[in-house]
Amino acid sequence: MGLRNIELRKLEEIIFKILMIVATVIITGSLAFIIVIIIVKGLPAMKLSMITQLPKGGFYIGKEGGILNAIAGSLMVAGGATLLSIIISIPVVLYINIYRKKRSRLANLTRFSFDVLWGVPSIVYGAFGFTVMLAFGIKASLLGGIIAIGFLELPIMSRAVDEVVRMVPSELKEATYSLGATKLETSYKVIVRQTFSGIVTATLIAFGRGIGDAAAVIFTAGYSDYIPDSLSQPAATLPLAIFFQMGTPFPEVQERAYASAFILTLIILVISITSRIIAVKITKHTIK
Amino acid sequence: MNSPRLLKDRIFSLLMQGLTIASCLVLVLIFICLLVKSSPLLISKPLGELLFSTNFRPLKGEFGFLAFIIGTLLVTGIALIIAVPLSLLAAVFLSEYTSGFILKAMKSLIDVLSGIPSVIYGLWGILVIVPLIKETIWLLFRKSVSGYSILAGGIVLSLMIIPVILHVSIEVLQYVSRDLREAALSLGATKWETIKHVVLRKGSPGIIAGIVLGLSRAFGETMAVMMVCGNVARIPGSLLDPGYPLPALIANNYGEMLSVPLYDSALLFAAFILFLIVVVFNIISRVILLKVERSIQ
Description:
The complex is a heterodimer. Chain A is mostly helical. Chain A has helices at residues 6-45, 48-52, 68-99, 105-119, 122-136, 142-167, 170-178, 183-194, 196-212, 217-220, 238-247, 251-285. The interface between A and B is large, with 86 and 85 residues.
């Protein structure tokens, strides 16, 4: 390459650098554009009644009411699913990190299968959840939605918790063993406490994914104009509310889709920014 | 010896082991469930007809998935053609030419945006991309189209997979060791030549893995694509024709599937195809990424 003119080589660099900057600007620009559009369209359509009222008669042709049913339903589905995924993922992560060697075959297999599960599309979780529900005779309900979203959140939660638990220095474990603690005591008295803010971050990330998902609940949670008061009743969810409102031919109802989208985006952004702030705090206080 | 404590430890250890093994088996469980549910269809129709026929008339008992498979491939293909060059250029720029605050801020931004629900992307597609396509075509060719097309689906999808590809690529490029770069620079290579001949070459397996991850994400994406791509069960003749990807087929017909014989089986077969393809892609990219990680440690 020495034979080539240095100016030519510099020119190539400049051209590519310009292309790179353009690409970066296009990406950030269009992603920011999404948020801007949701705010510009959603904010004017927001009314207090949207978040305080259930849909009233004729809501879907543009009459009075709100989407309290979907907000509450989404919080219930995602909340229940997150609880389910915490109950499963924390013991699993503690087991592969504390009871087994961090690089044991079972630990690696578990991590690998969570990584693969992470990529499974939510519509597949929906279809799978549906077959499980059929097998147990469960109808489209809050419980069904919790099961499907729970499966969807499980790999997200587990991998995020694993990242922080894996970082706990082994000296800390050894110190507690030398004081006579069992592995179980080490796990919940030391490791869980040490990684608590990491676990909170993971919970928020999983919750955020759960609340935004539509394809997994479309089969499993159903839809209802009321807030479910038991696990066996169908539950409305925000993403589906947006989808259905967008699907109607009435401009008034589509306006409501924009407002609903604004609410959902706001929830997601608050969750994701909170989790980021907590994540910054972990790195400040953990023993390294 | 404090035996109640040891006993407690033992019991919990077994419980936790059980949970761990169970969660490793979830993949197998999904596979078996979907296979069992799609078996009635697989038994009554030859696989060739299912995969290579375009006749999809559930009421007549005809289930050819070709139009849906092609719809999925086209939408994914368009998304990749847009997303891959953009993400690669941006990844190189961010990891090689920026550092510190900008890089951190961009990474956070990408991660925040990758958490935006697909319904929101779909809504944005309806509000921005669909009218944009409609008006551009009218201006250029004086032809009126609805705008709901595989092109719209591909564009929306590309924005959804850019964060995935970008995230992995930046990580991978940053893994490439400083020594290698310095060696190239000391031989008189310009910064760009170092990137082109050393950094990108060294990082290429990881970048490919990132692209495959993005690809599998695109394959299974449902709501956003379904909202903008028109959902007409025909093989699209051009980019501006509507298409009907597999995930949209599943999501759109959940209501009526239990009343038509074999229909539920057919939809779960569609889910099975998606699951298989995505799992295979994911396994490939994860194996590559693990190898990359090991070669660094």
